[in-house]
Amino acid sequence: MKSINLFRQKILSFLAVAHIFIMLTLVSCAQQPKESKIGTSVKSLKIGIIGSGNVGGTLGKKWSKAGYKVFFSSRHPEELKDLVTSAGPNAQAGTIENAIKFADVVVLAVPYKAEAELSNKYKSFIGDKILIDCDNAYSFRDGAVVADAKSEGVANYTQRNYFPKAKLIRAFNAVNASSVASADANNKIAIPFATDDPKLKSVAEELIIAADGIPKDGGSIKDSKSFDL
Ligand SMILES: NC(=O)c1ccc[n+]([C@@H]2O[C@H](COP(=O)([O-])OP(=O)(O)OC[C@H]3O[C@@H](n4cnc5c(N)ncnc54)[C@H](OP(=O)(O)O)[C@@H]3O)[C@@H](O)[C@H]2O)c1
């Protein structure tokens, strides 16, 4: 009888230890991100926006209202208070450097001529982060670089000369910011995108959908020349 009780006690202790082990494993699994940084949980990606004007402001507002954490930036971040208020609680603003440091996904929405300067100052902070290039190159505004950039394809030129390590997505350059602003669930807008990395397609598609767009796969970064404006 004594040995049966001892055996029962050992079994109970073993079950208690096993129970604690299983609970600890479950808790630790629950604390892990559910997907990798590039995967279906794009919503966990933090977005930093360089150039919070028509394009950057419109996209940032759409994404913050859709639940993404958005960091608007400017050379004068104190001027972005109204934008942050209208974007809601998921939005904040600050310097360009801090937006890049905050972000998993950096969005470039500046006049094309600014890209050279931004590359010099911030290329090392951007590193191999995901970079969405929304910029168009116009000679009346952006000067001498435009001829070469347009003949090569603007995003290809950007990748090669300015942000060679970045995981580049070309998107949002071929749609008017006001059309994106007025799009909604019942009135979506086709938005072409391009990337060389198949794993980035889900990121591009999800962010386009969150901006009330319909993603249109435009192929590789080189192919994106076809939708340069
Ligand atoms: N507007 C459209 O419908 C549209 C559509 C598709 C693509 N695009 C392209 O998207 C880009 C942005 O257009 P946008 O209409 O949004 O322009 P925007 O309203 O003028 O905003 C551009 C922002 O770029 C920032 N910026 C300018 N020079 C800079 C520099 N040297 N360094 C850092 N930031 C600088 C400015 O921010 P701070 O002065 O606050 O620093 C400004 O808020 C352009 O390349 C444009 O061709 C525009």
UniProtKB/TrEMBL annotation:
Residue ranges constituting the Pyrroline-5-carboxylate reductase catalytic N-terminal domain according to the UniProt record: 46-136
InterPro entries registered for this protein in UniProt: NAD(P)-bd_dom_sf, P5C_Rdtase_cat_N, STEAP_metalloreductase
Name of the molecule in the record: Dinucleotide-binding enzyme
One Pfam family this sequence matches: F420_oxidored
SUPFAM superfamilies: NAD(P)-binding Rossmann-fold domains
PANTHER family listed in its UniProt record: DUDULIN-RELATED (PTHR14239), REDUCTASE (PTHR14239:SF10)
GO-annotated molecular function: oxidoreductase activity
Species annotation: Rhizosphaericola mali
Taxonomic placement: Bacteria, Pseudomonadati, Bacteroidota, Chitinophagia, Chitinophagales
